Amino acid sequence: MEEHKENIHTKDVNGKMSNTKEDEKTEPCSRICPEGESAPQVSPSQSSSDFSHPVYKEISLANGHINRMTKDELRIKLEALQLDTRGVKDVMKKRLKSHYKKQKLMQSSTESSPTDTYYDYICVVDFEATCEEDNPSDFHHEIIEFPMVLINTHTLEIVDSFQEYVKPELNPQLSDFCVKLTGITQKMVEEADVFPAVLQRVVDWLQERELGTKYKYAILTDGAWDMSKFLNIQCRLSKIRYPQFAKKWINIRKSYGNFYKVPRTQTKLSTMLEKLGLKYEGRPHSGLDDSKNIARIALRMLQDGCQLRVNERIHAGQLLSVPSSAPVEGAPAPHSPRSRD
Asked: Which of 47, 89, 170, 221 is a good FRET partner for 257, with 20 to 30 A between their CA atoms?
């Protein structure tokens, strides 16, 4: 429900939204390097003098050459390197630059692996919620589909998925608009469990995969609405505490915009897919299908050299940005839902 989420983005329903400049802070993918290329990630123990290494001059020269290439030249070079040739010119440039940067850094032993990532797994979530064609200002959106798609960042594959429908309690009757938009029928939600029971099974699913214990993971969403609005509101309506594992997440729209250096207007799901040379697979506004397509974008970004990391969080009901200077931490191990009482 991509477009519908955007329509409610500016409405304060149950959670406060931050409009501070913090939202515009860039992520590690967009740190400035000569010729506009992203700088590699450095640990706090590394000094700025590390970038005096001759390898960075070589990377800068390579970037300058790539910037002058035509789209056809880029496609030929990518094909010769057996890299993906799909996407618009800026995407292909970024892909080729990332390839050469990794290659040079590997040769100089500056980085240990071309597939270094912050997390072992990334868990993509894209809720579907109750809605009206023109939502009243006091309308409470209830989650009616809870999907998850699991990405292995080392093998760069979608390895698992979860999906359950949820029975709404405040407004149990779905609008015709909602049914048509999401494809979720009244029968589906009437046969489903209420949110706390579904959330418990989500927790069980995450625990069975040892996420947050054996493996480091992060939640990823298409925008801020899923966590800061839908999950926040649903937890209040269900009288349970907001789950700790979902308090920080990767907003892929921010990551995509910063990595490929495009404006926010070009970070809608359909636009990101198009610019990457991908086509939507499945039914639009199906939570599971949307999650799978968001996962495909995340995989392509990882393949192109972006190190996805948490960039948003919720605190006391307020949406905040996570600056790139913050320590990188995985989501905590999930625990059973707890009552707000």
From this structure: 47
